[in-house]
Design a protein that fits this description.
The chain is mostly helical. The protein has a domain of about 100 residues: Winged helix-like DNA-binding domain superfamily/Winged helix DNA-binding domain (Arc Repressor Mutant, subunit A), CATH 1.10.10. It has six helices and three strands; from the N terminus they run ααβααββαα. The protein has a three-stranded antiparallel sheet with strand order 1-3-2. The longest helix has 25 residues. The protein starts with a helix and ends in a 6-residue tail after the last helix.
Length: about 150
């Protein structure tokens, strides 16, 4: 790879980041809140998910998790509680409204991706998947201590 390739990939990554920043979230949640709802949904036990585990899964500080949970709680999408068995533990779980909101946002997200890949075409989409999978494998080997 030469310097022209490095510059091209840098520019594409920058453009993709800017594009993501300018895409309006589907509902009334930020992109980060949407991702948090997905993580809570995926990793919760029937009781919920601890704030500490949520912090680890999202790779963000506990105060940042608390701030986002406050926002989602204000919207009625999550509830926070302490189980009777351990009052030191704070758990969070989706409410019914939170699950419904997440389902709506996931449907819109899925529809957007389907439209995008339809424009790309089947052959180019498969090639993109192949190349991204290969890139991921190379990066994982190159940075074995990372959380890829």
């Amino acid at each position: 790879m030469n310097n022209d390739h490095v510059e091209k990939i840098y520019q594409i990554m920058k453009q993709m980041h800017m594009l993501r920043s300018n895409i309006q979230p589907v509902g009334d949640n930020s992109h980060s809140e949407f991702f948090m709802l997905k993580v809570i949904c995926k990793h919760s036990t029937p009781l919920g998910l601890s704030m500490s585990n949520l912090s680890e899964l999202l790779k963000i500080s506990k105060p940042a998790v608390s701030q986002m949970v406050n926002s989602l709680e204000d919207k009625g999408y999550v509830e926070r509680f302490m189980p009777k068995s351990d009052r030191r533990l704070v758990l969070v779980r989706l409410t019914e409204a939170g699950q419904q909101g997440l389902d709506r946002e996931m449907q819109v997200f899925t529809d957007r991706l389907v439209q995008t890949f339809a424009k790309l075409g089947e052959e180019d989409t498969e090639e993109l998947f192949r190349l991204l999978t290969r890139l991921y494998s190379i990066l994982k080997d190159q940075f074995p201590d990372s959380r890829l």
